[in-house]
Amino acid sequence: MKPAKPLGPVMLDLRGPSLTPDEKDKLTHPAAGGLILFSRNYESPEQLTNLVADIRALRPEILIAVDHEGGRVQRFREGFTRLPPAARYREQSHGQAEAAEAVAETGGWLMAAELRAAGIDFSFAPVLDVDCGISDIIGDRSFSRDPFEAARLARAFAKGMRQAGMAAVGKHFPGHGGVAEDSHLALPVDRRPLAEIETRDLQPFRTLIEFGLEGVMPAHVVYENVDERPAGFSPFWIRDVLRRQLGFDGTVFSDDLSMAGAAFAGNHVDRARLALEAGCDMVLVCNVPDAAGDVLESLGNHSDTERESRLRRMRGRFPVDRNALLSSEDWRRAAELIASINEQPGYA
Questions:
Q1: pTM listed for this prediction
Q2: Is 184 among the residues known to form the active site?
């Protein structure tokens, strides 16, 4: 067996449901280390399984990821269980904390098991943002407006993911819930003092890091009373707070560098360089194939054994057979429970 190639620091995307020749070239580039899939890459479970097999045949060691939280953010729908938004786990429990945690754990397991059965390594989940009631882009993607409740439910969700062999990625550090702007469209500015962010927004991250959280994605948000740079480009937030103060030893993924919240840093090559210098282990470059090629070429000799070790911990921990999963009692019960949440009033 040939030794695995090093994992580069760039996560790319694909244009459609199958690989094109130029995408094959990009995926074999030494700076490539990950691939994120979107709805445009999905037609059916069978097509997805074949696409993942083609990717693995070309680059066996590459990390394959997806945004698959539930609710508004679920890339694969037909053929996958429809997952509720995070807030529904609390709402359906009517204040019963243990019941809410049990259902959140089931949701995390179901999401992860179905993705692992398709060969996906991990989902960018759970959302650890505390809903402050002002952010439409976060909203019901948050588990709760209470930081301790959000932490408990997110930990339960991550526990379920772990049981299915999937690493978790908490986002958006140190918290996106305190700004109204959407960082896909603008660069949000959070004007709260550091003390408020520490006591409220950081609580879910503290809890999940203690639990062994494998990945974190910083926010494209400026916390102007703390640092002039967005968190994903800030050595203060990544190296000082996340690494040193909170003791996080997992992988740091940038949010998509093509978002408007990253534009302050210049072109995509400059954005990637600044994010990596700030402490990110892997940078996402989505929806801009030409710029992705430029970033790959600019990082051709980027090698770091410690970073690669962290990235390898993001791989799926064991295979899941789709036919065996869908015929199992565990899957049937989990799917029925999640369906019952979706059927409750207030969620269409």
A1: 0.95
A2: yes
